[in-house]
Amino acid sequence: MKKLLGVTLGMMTALGGFVDLGQIVFTMQAGALFGYRLMWAIVLGTAAIILYMEMCGRVAVVAKEPVFAVVRTRLGFPLGLFTLIASNLLNVITCAAELGGIAIALHLLTGWPEKILLIGTSIGLGLIVFFLSFQWIERTFGLSGLMTVVFAVSAVTLHPDWSQVARGLVPTIPHPNAKHVLLYAYFAVGIFSAVLMEYEVHFYSFGVMEENWTPKDLGQNFMVAAFGSVLGAALTAGLLVLGALVFLPRGIFPEMLSSTVLAGAFPFGHRALVLALLGTIACLAGAAVETALSGAYNLCQFFNLAWGKNEPKKSVPVYTLAWTGTLVLALFAAATGLRPLQLVDMSVIFGMVVMPFTYYPILKAAADREVMGRHANSKLDTIVGSAFLFLIAGAAIAAIPLMIATHSGRP
Amino acid sequence: LKEDSNTGTAKPRVFFALAVVLFPILTATSASCSRNKKVGLDELRSRIRSANSFVAESELFIDYIRQGHAPHHYIEAHAAYLEDAVKQFEKELEQGNPELGTGTAIHECITDMDLLRRELSSIAALSANNHGLAAAKTRMETIRKSLQKAYSSI
C-alpha cells in the first residue's frame, strides 16, 4: 500500500506538470492546427522528462544533494544565483497563470465572480499547503487530478484514426509554406517545453528527499518517474487528439480554457463537463502548489537554509515565508488583469530558455562517479541525456525567434 | 560535490545568461503589442481565419447547448468569455493600420464580428429556447458565409 501511494508523487508531479494550463491550451491548439502531426513532440518530451526525473531522483537519493545545491556547485555561485532568480520568476509567472486558470474553471462551474474566486483559491491552496504534510499534498492532488482522464476517454470515444495517430510519431512538414513550417516548429518547441517544465523535475527531487528515500528505493525511483510521466503523456496525447477531432475539422483555433474543457466533455453529457472542470481544477491546483513549493525549495537549498514541508514551521521560517510569498506574488500578478493564457505563453517560452541552465547541472552530477559511485549514469544514460540536452538547448535558442516570427503562435 | 570556482569566467557567463533570460521577456512584450501593425494581405487572411474560428466556435457551442449537455453557469460564463474575446478581436481590427486594398475587407470583418458579439450576448437568455438557438445558429451561418466571401475576395 505504501509503495502504491508512493506512486502518487510521480502522479502529482506529472499531472501538475504535464496537464497544467499551458499544456491544456497549447496542445489543443497544436491539434487544432496540425492534427496528430505533433504527437512525436509529446513522446520525445516524455522520454526526456523520464530520463531527467530519474536522474534528479537518483542524485537526491545517493548524493543527498537537492537540485539547487547541485545547480550552485556545478554552475558556480553567480550563474547559479542567476538561475535561481530566473527559475523562481518562472515559478511565480506559472503559479499566477494556474491560479487564474482555476478561477476561470471555478467561475464556469459556479458562476461566482472570478476575482473573488481568485482570492479564495489562493487562500484555500495556502491553507492546504500549510496544514497538510508533503505526502498528503501529493496524494490529494495526484489522485484528484485523475479526473482529467475524462479528456483521454473523450478522445478515444471520438474514434480517432489510429493509423494517422501512429503516423504523427514521425515528424512531417505540414505544408511547403514558410508560415506553416514556422508555426509547426513553434508548437513543437512549445509542447516539448511544456512537457519538460523544470519545476516538475525539481518538485520530484524534493519529494524524494521529503519521503527519505534510500538507495534501496532506486528501483522504485524509475518506476514512479516513468509511471507518472507516461500517465501525463497519455493525457496530453488525449488533448492533442481532441484538438484534432473537435476543432480542426471546424476550423476553430481554441484560445480559451472554457473551449478546451468543452472539447474534453464533447461526446458526453452534463456530468462529463463537470468532471472535466473538476479534473482541470485539480491539475491546475497541483501545478500551482508545485510551483509555489518549488520556489521555496529552490531558495532554501541554494542558500543552504533549513527546509522541509514536514518540519515544524518555526524551524523552517524562510521556507514557509518563501512558498507563502510565491503564492501572494502570483495572486497579485493574476489580479493585475493579465489573462492567464498571456502568462502561460510567457512561461512556456521563458521556461524553455531557462531550461538548459538547470538540466545541465543535473546531467553533470548524475554522471559524476566521485559523487554517485556505482549509481552514476551508465554511458548510455549520459549519451542519451546529452542528446536530449542538445535538443533542449536547440529548442531554447529557437524559442524566441519562433515566437516573434509567429506572433506567439497565431495562425 | 565540488565547487566550480572558475570565477574568472563567472561575470561574462552571468551577463550572457542575463541577456538570454531578459530577451524573451522584452520580445514577448513587443510581440504582444505587434497586433497593432500594418495589415497587409497575409495579415488580413490570418485575421479573417481568426474571425471564422470565433464563428465556428460559437456554432459548436450552440450545438452543445441544444444537446442539453451544458450546465447553466457554464453557458453564461463561456458565452461571456467568447463575447469578450470577440470584442477584444474587434478592437484589434479597428486599431490595425490597413494597407491599400484591405480596408473594405477589414470593415466587413468588423461588421461581422459586431453581429457575432450581439448573438453571443443573447445566448445565455436563449439557452432553454431551442427555436431561438436554431435561429441564432442560422444567423451565425450567414456571418460565416459573409466572412468566406470576404476571404475569397482578397
Describe the structure.
Chain A is mostly helical. Chain A has 18 helices and no strands. In chain A, helix 1 packs antiparallel against helix 11 and helix 3 runs antiparallel to helix 12. Chain A is globular. Chain A starts with a helix and ends in a 6-residue tail after the last helix. The N terminus of chain B is likely disordered. In chain B, strands 1-2 form a two-stranded parallel sheet. Chain B is elongated, with a radius of gyration of 23 Å. In chain B, 79% of the residues lie in helices and 3% in strands. Chain B is an all-alpha fold and 154 residues long. Chain B has 5 helices and 2 strands. At the A-B interface, helix 4, helix 5, helix 13, helix 14 and helix 16 of A face helix 1, helix 2 and helix 3 of B.
Write the layout of secondary structure elements.
The complex is a heterodimer of chains A (411) and B (154).
Chain A: H1 2-18, H2 21-34, H3 39-62, H4 67-75, H5 77-110, H6 114-131, H7 134-144, H8 149-157, H9 162-167, H10 178-195, H11 198-210, H12 218-247, H13 257-264, H14 270-302, H15 317-335, H16 340-366, H17 369-372, H18 379-405
Helix pairs in contact in A: 1-7, 1-11, 1-12, 1-14, 2-10, 2-12, 3-10, 3-11, 3-12, 3-16, 4-5, 4-14, 4-16, 5-6, 5-14, 5-15, 5-16, 6-15, 7-14, 8-12, 10-16, 10-18, 11-14, 14-15, 16-18
Chain B: H1 10-33, E1 38-39, H2 41-66, H3 72-95, E2 97-98, H4 103-126, H5 130-152
Parallel strand pairs in B: 1-2
